[in-house]
Amino acid sequence: MEKADYDLVIIGGGPAGLTAGLYAARARMKVILLEMITPGGQILVTDWIENYPGFPEGISGAELVQRMTDQTKRFELPIESTEVSSLDFSKPVKQINLSDGGKLLTHTIIIATGASPKKLGVPGEEKFSGRGVSFCGTCDGPFFKDRVIAAVGGGDTAVQESQFLTKFARKVYLIHRRDELRAEKILQERAFANEKIELVWDSVVTEIDGLTNVEKVTVKNVKTNETKNLAVDGCFIWIGTHPNADFLGDEIQQETNGFIITDTNMTTSVSGVFAAGDIRDTPIRQIATAVGDAVIAVASAENYLESL
Protein backbone atom coordinates (compact mmCIF):
# COMPACT_ATOMS: atom_id res chain seq x y z
CA MET A 1 0.00 0.00 0.00
CA GLU A 2 1.38 3.40 -0.98
CA LYS A 3 2.43 5.83 1.72
CA ALA A 4 -0.10 8.41 2.93
CA ASP A 5 -0.52 10.76 5.87
CA TYR A 6 -3.83 9.19 6.91
CA ASP A 7 -5.99 6.14 6.43
CA LEU A 8 -9.05 8.41 6.42
CA VAL A 9 -9.71 12.13 6.25
CA ILE A 10 -13.21 13.31 7.15
CA ILE A 11 -14.21 16.67 5.68
CA GLY A 12 -16.99 18.33 7.69
CA GLY A 13 -17.86 18.41 11.39
CA GLY A 14 -21.64 18.18 11.62
CA PRO A 15 -23.46 15.09 12.93
CA ALA A 16 -22.29 12.98 9.98
CA GLY A 17 -18.66 14.04 10.30
CA LEU A 18 -18.55 13.66 14.07
CA THR A 19 -20.16 10.22 13.90
CA ALA A 20 -17.71 9.11 11.22
CA GLY A 21 -14.88 10.42 13.37
CA LEU A 22 -16.14 8.55 16.41
CA TYR A 23 -16.39 5.23 14.57
CA ALA A 24 -13.04 5.67 12.83
CA ALA A 25 -11.25 6.62 16.05
CA ARG A 26 -12.71 3.64 17.87
CA ALA A 27 -11.55 1.43 14.99
CA ARG A 28 -8.02 2.78 15.62
CA MET A 29 -7.76 4.15 12.10
CA LYS A 30 -5.25 6.92 11.44
CA VAL A 31 -7.87 9.60 10.97
CA ILE A 32 -8.33 13.37 11.12
CA LEU A 33 -11.49 15.46 10.88
CA LEU A 34 -11.31 18.75 8.99
CA GLU A 35 -14.01 21.16 10.13
CA MET A 36 -14.64 23.59 7.28
CA ILE A 37 -17.82 25.44 8.15
CA THR A 38 -19.27 26.28 11.59
CA PRO A 39 -18.31 23.53 14.06
CA GLY A 40 -21.38 21.36 14.39
CA GLY A 41 -22.90 22.40 11.08
CA GLN A 42 -26.55 23.35 10.61
CA ILE A 43 -27.61 21.54 13.77
CA LEU A 44 -26.26 24.48 15.77
CA VAL A 45 -28.96 26.80 14.41
CA THR A 46 -31.71 24.41 15.51
CA ASP A 47 -33.29 25.56 18.75
CA TRP A 48 -34.84 22.29 19.89
CA ILE A 49 -34.65 18.73 18.56
CA GLU A 50 -37.44 16.31 19.45
CA ASN A 51 -37.03 13.56 16.84
CA TYR A 52 -33.53 12.32 17.60
CA PRO A 53 -33.78 8.99 19.48
CA GLY A 54 -32.63 8.79 23.07
CA PHE A 55 -33.78 12.23 24.21
CA PRO A 56 -37.45 11.88 25.21
CA GLU A 57 -37.65 15.47 26.45
CA GLY A 58 -35.77 16.86 23.46
CA ILE A 59 -32.37 18.53 23.33
CA SER A 60 -30.96 21.75 21.90
CA GLY A 61 -28.87 21.55 18.77
CA ALA A 62 -25.90 23.14 20.54
CA GLU A 63 -25.97 20.62 23.38
CA LEU A 64 -26.28 17.64 21.06
CA VAL A 65 -23.26 18.81 19.06
CA GLN A 66 -21.30 19.33 22.28
CA ARG A 67 -22.13 15.82 23.46
CA MET A 68 -21.11 14.35 20.10
CA THR A 69 -17.85 16.32 20.16
CA ASP A 70 -17.08 15.27 23.74
CA GLN A 71 -17.63 11.66 22.76
CA THR A 72 -15.09 11.92 19.92
CA LYS A 73 -12.58 13.50 22.30
CA ARG A 74 -12.88 10.49 24.57
CA PHE A 75 -11.43 8.42 21.72
CA GLU A 76 -8.85 11.12 20.86
CA LEU A 77 -10.15 12.07 17.42
CA PRO A 78 -7.94 14.84 15.97
CA ILE A 79 -10.09 17.78 14.79
CA GLU A 80 -8.62 20.67 12.81
CA SER A 81 -10.39 23.85 11.69
CA THR A 82 -9.31 24.58 8.14
CA GLU A 83 -10.62 25.16 4.62
CA VAL A 84 -10.30 22.64 1.82
CA SER A 85 -9.70 24.42 -1.48
CA SER A 86 -9.67 21.43 -3.83
CA LEU A 87 -9.22 17.69 -4.19
CA ASP A 88 -6.92 15.72 -6.48
CA PHE A 89 -7.90 12.13 -7.30
CA SER A 90 -5.48 11.65 -10.20
CA LYS A 91 -3.46 9.09 -8.22
CA PRO A 92 -4.45 6.12 -6.03
CA VAL A 93 -3.54 8.12 -2.92
CA LYS A 94 -5.94 11.07 -2.69
CA GLN A 95 -4.60 14.58 -2.21
CA ILE A 96 -6.48 17.24 -0.24
CA ASN A 97 -5.36 20.80 -0.91
CA LEU A 98 -5.89 23.27 1.93
CA SER A 99 -6.54 26.99 1.55
CA ASP A 100 -3.38 27.80 3.53
CA GLY A 101 -1.27 25.96 0.95
CA GLY A 102 -0.97 22.75 2.93
CA LYS A 103 -1.60 19.29 1.52
CA LEU A 104 -2.78 16.02 3.02
CA LEU A 105 -2.41 12.58 1.47
CA THR A 106 -4.94 9.92 2.41
CA HIS A 107 -6.16 6.53 1.26
CA THR A 108 -9.83 7.29 1.88
CA ILE A 109 -12.06 10.34 2.32
CA ILE A 110 -15.52 10.84 3.77
CA ILE A 111 -17.15 14.07 2.58
CA ALA A 112 -19.65 15.33 5.16
CA THR A 113 -19.74 19.08 4.55
CA GLY A 114 -23.53 19.27 4.68
CA ALA A 115 -25.64 22.02 3.17
CA SER A 116 -26.37 25.72 3.70
CA PRO A 117 -29.62 27.70 3.54
CA LYS A 118 -30.92 28.74 0.13
CA LYS A 119 -31.62 32.39 -0.51
CA LEU A 120 -34.67 34.00 -2.07
CA GLY A 121 -32.69 36.02 -4.57
CA VAL A 122 -34.95 39.06 -4.25
CA PRO A 123 -34.09 42.77 -3.98
CA GLY A 124 -33.09 43.74 -0.45
CA GLU A 125 -32.08 40.25 0.71
CA GLU A 126 -28.34 40.89 0.49
CA LYS A 127 -28.61 44.56 1.46
CA PHE A 128 -30.36 43.79 4.75
CA SER A 129 -28.48 40.60 5.61
CA GLY A 130 -27.59 41.02 9.28
CA ARG A 131 -29.91 44.02 9.50
CA GLY A 132 -33.19 42.15 9.70
CA VAL A 133 -32.67 39.36 7.17
CA SER A 134 -31.64 36.14 8.88
CA PHE A 135 -31.44 32.40 8.31
CA CYS A 136 -31.10 31.46 11.99
CA GLY A 137 -33.87 31.87 14.54
CA THR A 138 -31.71 30.66 17.41
CA CYS A 139 -29.00 33.20 16.57
CA ASP A 140 -31.16 36.26 15.93
CA GLY A 141 -34.58 35.62 17.46
CA PRO A 142 -33.78 37.38 20.77
CA PHE A 143 -33.16 40.63 18.87
CA PHE A 144 -36.83 40.79 17.89
CA LYS A 145 -38.52 41.00 21.26
CA ASP A 146 -42.07 42.39 20.84
CA ARG A 147 -41.45 42.93 17.11
CA VAL A 148 -43.24 41.68 13.99
CA ILE A 149 -41.41 39.15 11.83
CA ALA A 150 -41.88 37.59 8.40
CA ALA A 151 -40.82 33.95 8.06
CA VAL A 152 -40.58 32.26 4.66
CA GLY A 153 -40.98 28.53 4.05
CA GLY A 154 -43.25 25.59 4.74
CA GLY A 155 -41.04 22.68 5.78
CA ASP A 156 -40.05 21.37 9.19
CA THR A 157 -37.38 24.01 9.76
CA ALA A 158 -39.58 26.95 8.77
CA VAL A 159 -42.49 25.86 10.94
CA GLN A 160 -40.41 24.83 13.94
CA GLU A 161 -38.29 27.97 13.86
CA SER A 162 -41.36 30.20 13.43
CA GLN A 163 -42.73 28.59 16.56
CA PHE A 164 -39.47 29.39 18.32
CA LEU A 165 -39.59 33.02 17.17
CA THR A 166 -42.93 33.52 18.94
CA LYS A 167 -41.02 33.31 22.22
CA PHE A 168 -39.78 36.79 21.38
CA ALA A 169 -41.87 38.32 18.60
CA ARG A 170 -45.28 39.85 18.97
CA LYS A 171 -46.37 38.36 15.64
CA VAL A 172 -44.92 36.07 12.97
CA TYR A 173 -46.20 36.01 9.39
CA LEU A 174 -45.41 32.56 8.01
CA ILE A 175 -45.33 32.97 4.23
CA HIS A 176 -45.63 29.85 2.10
CA ARG A 177 -45.96 29.53 -1.67
CA ARG A 178 -48.48 26.68 -1.47
CA ASP A 179 -51.85 26.23 0.21
CA GLU A 180 -50.59 23.62 2.66
CA LEU A 181 -47.44 23.12 4.70
CA ARG A 182 -44.88 20.36 4.11
CA ALA A 183 -43.84 20.09 7.75
CA GLU A 184 -44.58 17.14 10.03
CA LYS A 185 -48.20 17.11 11.14
CA ILE A 186 -47.36 17.63 14.80
CA LEU A 187 -45.39 20.77 13.88
CA GLN A 188 -48.28 22.01 11.75
CA GLU A 189 -50.72 21.48 14.59
CA ARG A 190 -48.57 23.58 16.91
CA ALA A 191 -48.30 26.37 14.34
CA PHE A 192 -52.04 26.45 13.72
CA ALA A 193 -52.69 26.59 17.46
CA ASN A 194 -50.24 29.43 18.03
CA GLU A 195 -52.08 32.74 18.12
CA LYS A 196 -48.92 34.64 17.29
CA ILE A 197 -48.48 32.89 13.92
CA GLU A 198 -50.46 34.09 10.90
CA LEU A 199 -50.22 31.95 7.77
CA VAL A 200 -49.90 33.76 4.45
CA TRP A 201 -50.81 31.10 1.88
CA ASP A 202 -49.99 30.83 -1.85
CA SER A 203 -47.52 33.66 -1.57
CA VAL A 204 -43.89 34.53 -2.22
CA VAL A 205 -41.72 37.41 -1.06
CA THR A 206 -40.69 39.58 -4.02
CA GLU A 207 -38.83 42.35 -2.19
CA ILE A 208 -37.42 43.26 1.20
CA ASP A 209 -37.19 46.97 1.93
CA GLY A 210 -36.43 49.56 4.58
CA LEU A 211 -34.20 52.49 5.36
CA THR A 212 -31.31 51.15 7.44
CA ASN A 213 -33.04 47.97 8.64
CA VAL A 214 -35.92 45.83 7.38
CA GLU A 215 -39.22 47.68 7.55
CA LYS A 216 -41.43 45.78 5.13
CA VAL A 217 -41.67 42.84 2.75
CA THR A 218 -43.63 42.79 -0.49
CA VAL A 219 -45.66 39.62 -0.91
CA LYS A 220 -47.19 38.34 -4.15
CA ASN A 221 -50.04 35.84 -4.29
CA VAL A 222 -49.03 33.25 -6.90
CA LYS A 223 -52.66 32.47 -7.80
CA THR A 224 -54.12 35.97 -8.08
CA ASN A 225 -50.89 37.93 -8.77
CA GLU A 226 -52.02 40.47 -6.18
CA THR A 227 -49.27 42.11 -4.16
CA LYS A 228 -49.29 43.63 -0.71
CA ASN A 229 -46.79 45.04 1.77
CA LEU A 230 -46.37 43.62 5.24
CA ALA A 231 -44.87 45.92 7.85
CA VAL A 232 -42.22 43.81 9.60
CA ASP A 233 -38.99 44.31 11.52
CA GLY A 234 -37.26 41.23 10.19
CA CYS A 235 -37.41 38.46 7.61
CA PHE A 236 -36.28 34.91 8.39
CA ILE A 237 -35.77 32.62 5.39
CA TRP A 238 -36.05 28.82 5.46
CA ILE A 239 -36.69 27.56 1.91
CA GLY A 240 -34.32 24.63 1.73
CA THR A 241 -30.61 24.08 1.36
CA HIS A 242 -27.85 23.84 -1.21
CA PRO A 243 -24.75 21.63 -0.85
CA ASN A 244 -21.47 22.92 0.54
CA ALA A 245 -19.60 21.49 -2.41
CA ASP A 246 -17.71 24.32 -4.13
CA PHE A 247 -14.35 22.69 -3.35
CA LEU A 248 -15.28 19.50 -5.22
CA GLY A 249 -14.91 20.89 -8.72
CA ASP A 250 -15.63 18.10 -11.20
CA GLU A 251 -13.78 15.41 -9.25
CA ILE A 252 -16.96 13.60 -8.13
CA GLN A 253 -20.24 12.87 -9.88
CA GLN A 254 -23.00 15.15 -8.60
CA GLU A 255 -26.65 15.76 -9.36
CA THR A 256 -27.54 18.92 -11.27
CA ASN A 257 -28.33 20.54 -7.91
CA GLY A 258 -24.81 19.81 -6.68
CA PHE A 259 -25.52 17.02 -4.17
CA ILE A 260 -23.15 14.04 -4.34
CA ILE A 261 -24.40 10.80 -5.87
CA THR A 262 -23.65 7.67 -3.82
CA ASP A 263 -24.72 4.06 -3.71
CA THR A 264 -26.13 2.36 -0.62
CA ASN A 265 -22.59 1.92 0.74
CA MET A 266 -22.05 5.71 0.58
CA THR A 267 -19.51 5.14 -2.21
CA THR A 268 -19.14 7.99 -4.69
CA SER A 269 -18.01 7.83 -8.31
CA VAL A 270 -14.39 7.80 -7.05
CA SER A 271 -13.08 4.61 -5.48
CA GLY A 272 -12.14 5.19 -1.84
CA VAL A 273 -14.17 8.39 -1.55
CA PHE A 274 -17.44 8.33 0.35
CA ALA A 275 -20.13 10.86 1.26
CA ALA A 276 -22.48 11.07 4.25
CA GLY A 277 -25.20 13.35 5.53
CA ASP A 278 -26.82 16.36 3.91
CA ILE A 279 -24.15 16.70 1.19
CA ARG A 280 -25.42 13.43 -0.27
CA ASP A 281 -28.24 13.11 -2.81
CA THR A 282 -30.85 11.69 -0.46
CA PRO A 283 -34.63 12.05 -0.05
CA ILE A 284 -34.36 12.76 3.70
CA ARG A 285 -32.01 15.14 5.47
CA GLN A 286 -32.24 14.57 9.21
CA ILE A 287 -29.73 14.13 12.02
CA ALA A 288 -30.66 10.47 12.35
CA THR A 289 -30.08 9.75 8.65
CA ALA A 290 -26.78 11.66 8.68
CA VAL A 291 -25.57 9.55 11.60
CA GLY A 292 -26.60 6.35 9.82
CA ASP A 293 -24.87 7.43 6.61
CA ALA A 294 -21.67 8.04 8.54
CA VAL A 295 -21.60 4.59 10.13
CA ILE A 296 -22.00 2.96 6.71
CA ALA A 297 -19.35 5.24 5.19
CA VAL A 298 -16.74 4.30 7.81
CA ALA A 299 -17.46 0.59 7.34
CA SER A 300 -17.08 1.04 3.59
CA ALA A 301 -13.81 2.92 4.07
CA GLU A 302 -12.50 0.07 6.26
CA ASN A 303 -13.43 -2.47 3.60
CA TYR A 304 -11.69 -0.40 0.96
CA LEU A 305 -8.51 -0.18 3.05
CA GLU A 306 -8.54 -3.94 3.56
CA SER A 307 -8.80 -4.43 -0.20
CA LEU A 308 -5.56 -2.47 -0.64
Keyword list:
single chain; alpha/beta; FAD/NAD(P)-binding domain; 2 domains; seven-stranded mixed sheet; five-stranded parallel sheet; elongated
Helix-strand string: EHEHEEEEEEHEHEHEEEEEEEH
CATH class annotation of the largest domain: Alpha Beta
**Rg, please?**
21 Å
Work out the count of structural domains.
2
User: What name does CATH use for the topology of the largest domain?
Assistant: FAD/NAD(P)-binding domain
Commentary on this structure:
- With 308 residues, the protein is an alpha/beta fold.
- The chain has two domains: 6-116 and 241-307, FAD/NAD(P)-binding domain, CATH 3.50.50; 133-237, 3-Layer(bba) Sandwich (FAD/NAD(P)-binding domain).
- Helices cover 23% and strands 27% of the residues.
- It contains six helices and 17 strands.
- It has helices at residues 15-26, 61-74, 137-140, 156-165, 185-193, 287-307, and strands spanning 6-11, 31-35, 79-81, 84-88, 94-98, 103-111, 115-117, 133-134, 148-152, 171-175, 197-200, 203-210, 214-221, 227-231, 234-237, 241-243, 273-275.
- The strands form four sheets. Strands 1, 2, 3, 4, 5, 6 and 17 form a seven-stranded mixed beta sheet that branches. It has a five-stranded parallel beta sheet with strand order 8-15-9-10-11.
- α2 links the parallel β2 and β3.
- α1 (15-26) packs parallel to α2 (61-74), α1 packs parallel to α6 and α4 packs parallel to α5 (185-193).
- The longest helix has 21 residues, at 287-307.
- The mean pLDDT is 94.
